[in-house]
Design brief:
Helix content is 54%, strand content 7%. A two-stranded parallel ribbon has the order 1-2. Helix 2 packs across helix 5. It contains seven helices and four strands, in the order H-E-H-H-H-H-E-H-E-H-E. The protein is elongated. It is mainly alpha-helical and 174 residues long. The two termini are 26 Å apart.
């Protein structure tokens, strides 16, 4: 039979669906519109910003955009938001990014939505936190070939390692 060809995100989506089916992840709809992410991120960061700087203060668009970039950076990595923040060279005005990330995630879960990046972030973070969940996906294939490997991020590398387990031979191209 022909080999199965998938992008990282389609593989993540497949794992999410399986994990939802067996009760390891909550059900959520995929939200494809970026303006929903922006709205939730703006609300979360504005709330934290006001608590740090006073109710009369509001963050400007550049700072909100920087928070959204931080949010997506965290979701492309296996490190905690704290570690990602510490590793970054952020201005003092960004001091609420980590707290706002947690508020963003709380609101995303309340709304029962997943954005594109969450199709990898949610299952990989769960599998890293709860090792026994890896048994559902690890050691199921003999070979994994990854094209454009130079573009892989931390969350993708973690997924590749989990999928390969001890069984698969991995070939990276690029």
């Amino acid at each position: 039979s022909a080999p199965e060809i998938r992008t990282f995100n389609s593989m993540g989506n497949r794992i999410v669906n399986r994990f939802v089916q067996i009760g390891l992840l909550p059900d959520a709809r995929i939200e494809e519109k970026d303006h929903h992410r922006t709205r939730i991120a703006k609300g979360a960061f504005t709330q934290v910003f006001k608590s740090l700087n006073g109710e009369d203060e509001t963050p400007d668009k550049d700072l909100i955009d920087a928070f959204i970039t931080f949010l997506q950076l965290v979701k492309s990595d296996t490190r905690s938001p704290d570690h990602v923040f510490e590793a970054g060279n952020y201005q003092k005005s960004a001091q609420g990014f980590v707290e706002a990330f947690h508020l963003f995630e709380k609101e995303r879960k309340r709304l029962k939505i997943r954005f594109f990046e969450d199709q990898l972030y949610d299952p990989v973070k769960l599998m890293l936190k709860t090792q026994e969940t890896q048994r559902y996906v690890a050691d199921k294939v003999d070979h994994l070939i990854v094209d454009e490997a130079q573009d892989m991020n931390g969350i993708q590398i973690a997924l590749l390692r989990i999928l390969a387990g001890t069984r698969a031979k991995v070939m990276l191209v690029g």
